[in-house]
Amino acid sequence: MKARIFIGGLSLLSLSVAQAALDGPSVRLADTVITGTGFEVASLMSPGSVTRIGEDDLRRRSLADVADLFRDIPGVVLSDSDTPGMKRISIRGESSRRVTIRIDGQTVTDHTDYGTPLLIDPAMIERVEVVRGPASVINGSNAIGGVVNIITRRGSDVPLESYVGGGYYSATQGYRSNAGLSGSSGGFDYRLGLSRSEHGDRRTRGHGELDNSAYDNQSAALHLGYRRDNHYVAFKAERFDLSAGSWVEPQPGSEFNLDFPKRDQRHYALFYEATDLNPVVKKLSANAYRRTVDRDFNNNVLTRVLPVTVMVDNNSLDEQLTRGLGLQAELELFSEQTTLIGLEYMDDELDSDKFGSTTRITPAGTVVTPASASQKADQQTLSAFAQQEWQFAESWTAYLGGRYYRVESELARSTERTAVDSADERVLGSLGIVYSPAPHWALRANLAQGYSYPTLAQLYSVSPARERIFYGNPDLKPERARVVELGWRYEVPLVTTDVVLFHTIAKDYIDRQRIGATPDGYLPPGNSALEQWQYTNVNEANTTGLEVSLEWRPDWLVQPHAALSLSRREFDYGNGYSTRDSGLPAAMGTLGLRSYAQLGQVSNEFDFFVRTASGAERKGADRSVEDREGGYATLNLAWTLDYQERVGVRLLLGNLLNRSYRPLDELPGLKRHIDTEITLTF
């Protein structure tokens, strides 16, 4: 019944937009994507829900934070866990650690409880592709919520091109500056980019100035490539250094301070690509990389329950080393149909040292209890995958994929518990079908699986935070998910629209629950007053939703655009309690009007838009309310000016009505503010 209603609705919608598009030619748009299938296909023909953020989208955005690129994609919300400058992406209600982040096809891992932050200079990005929904067959572990694949720039088309840019952001009294060189000659191409940002404490309408919310970062990135005939090799190097405070809402009787004085990332990668080697091997690619992340984390808590004062100081130093290798081949075993095969290996090592003390001040005297801990753990992931494109009728194309996983984890050394290891083997599959009887529209159905193996922190760590201590659980099972999607795309010069109805079932969720005693294998905590918690698998989550995006480009003064998602998510904690208060807004979206004007060699674009979300509440397994925020809507105006592709100016007037609001899992929203950026290209 639901399918009939959905198809009927699509038919009515297609009739309405088709009538509006009669004056425009029916042509397939040039945009292509690779993230949903592993090889290049027209965006119209992708079996999954893929959003492409191209050069034009990057050009029109004012970006104090690269994560803001994703804010208007249906089903996508941002989270920063009260830490500015380290935004993460949540897709369809799945937490950020269930979203795979890839840069140039290489997975970026982060063995914390928060998920992988988006730390990259926006000037180095060529385009971004976002897959919404489970996609672990093609894109690897953790792709339960979806995938963000960032493709970086190579050299430019001229021997030497340079740019300089800067920006100012009033709500944080912050600035960003960047500069770069790029070019190509004699088969060689290159690009060098430098950037620097500094932001002060955030200014909000409802909470005033947020103490300890300042952050700054700096980055440098290098690309060197060489092409000879149909072979291409490249070397990429990148560093990104970040330091940030963390604002915590004040609580009576307690003072809490959180700092990330250092999060330094280094990345080195080699790429090889060959095309049209013979009639069967259409493309062969390989890559190898090494990434290190150094984290310094400080956590200080002061609690007064007179006549006793307790001060807890914790410092954590983590070093994560990731080495990876990927091989992939696109074959044409059958006429004009692509067969993809690939192999990926990834080795993560996490070396962690923790230092701290608990100071207890009473009328009888002061007692200081020092504490220290260290551990080293590693995780290896080996996977092999295949995907077959099959055009089994004139208007029908199927994509059948499978992936085999072998994951091994080991706690090699720890002062907190005995050594232990764990492993898992898994086979996943996906099936997508696209029906496209005309070159401008397509219906699709997609069945896909997601898979997320526990992080090293979830398996083995001992992490104090405020009045709690969290223990890893080496008996954790991997999280799993599967999705059923029905979608419709329509693309003509006048109209672009995408509609998808989905249902996702996720099992064996990893969450934290309070326990009454120290888990087996661990040493008791030095401070007996700490609450003890442990990671554990809860039962499942079910999410049903509708996502719609629309761009209508009539020959009017203004052109409407919209992105909307409606969703319902239910947690079943496996203890007899289930709730729809899962922290996901039931409705959220963007609605706006764009206007384009060409004045000689100057092009202008204005975008007057509203961002809105309904209220959300999150309840834990014990039925208590963990977080609650009301709904909100902000009115915004963006202006983009370009002159001969040499001068670019971006201006954002945000929160024009100066509303007080706070999205769930984010810092309180900025008060009325102005963001300005300018880029000069020579």
What does this structure look like?
The longest helix has 19 residues, at 2-20. Residues 1-30 have low confidence and may be disordered. The chain is built from 4 helices and 38 strands. The protein has a 22-stranded antiparallel beta barrel. Helix content is 5%, strand content 62%. With 682 residues, the chain is mostly beta strands. It has a single domain, classed as TonB-dependent receptor, beta-barrel domain (Maltoporin, Chain A), CATH 2.40.170.20.
End-to-end span in angstroms?
59 Å
Helix/sheet category: mainly beta
What is the CATH C-level name?
Mainly Beta
Average pLDDT, rounded to a whole number, is 88
Oligomer: single chain
What is the CATH superfamily label? TonB-dependent receptor, beta-barrel domain
Total count of domains: 1
| Fraction in beta strands | over 45%
**How would you sum up the major sheet?**
22 strands, antiparallel, barrel
Q: What's the CATH topology label? A: Maltoporin, Chain A
Structural shape? globular
Question: Helix coverage percent of residues?
Answer: under 10%
Number-wise, the strands total 38
Spans of 5+ residues with little confidence (pLDDT < 50)?
A: 1-30
Q: What is the number of helical segments per DSSP (H or I, 4+ residues)? A: 4
Q: Architecture in CATH?
A: Beta Barrel
The whole-angstrom Rg is 25 Å
